[in-house]
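User: Please look over both lines:
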Amino acid sequence: GDPILLPAGGKHAVQLGYSRDLARCIVDCRAAPKAVRQVYNFGQRELPRWVHFLESMARAAGKPLNTVAIPSEILHRHSELPWYDGSYAPFCDDNISMSLSKAEREIGLAFTPLTEWVKTTTEWYLSNPAALQNTKHADLRWKEVLFAGKWKATIERLHSRFEPQP
């Protein structure tokens, strides 16, 4: 229920990948003669915006999505979270899209629909809550929640300064 920060409002498109699809891709590469000494891009064909990806997770979890849109520059400069090295939320600050046509053509790259794998992944985490506590940067979540609160309060103060006075 705590807020999730959305750099640039979560408008950036992301090309994610499902671990089971990646495992199948690796097995298929080993079996495909054309795949020897080749490089293939891997990801989903679907390109949801970051906010839509989060919405699909919230739906799968049966929870409301609580986000706070913040300009990326503000997050990078003032949040004390490691946005600058791309490790804190690597897919939410820039559009990321790769061509998958070579992998589809040469090794038959196939995809599980986004809503299906997000549901499977979300259900797994819901049934294994300790796993979330061990994810990278879980120890910084409190800073994200604190910064979201400060940002919301700042925006509210700013809006109140521009409201018409009686």
In short: Helices lie at 19-31, 50-61, 72-78, 101-107, 114-127, 129-133, 141-162. The CA atoms of residues 55 and 65 lie 6 Å apart. The beta strands are 4-7, 67-70. Residues 141-162 form the longest helix (22 residues).
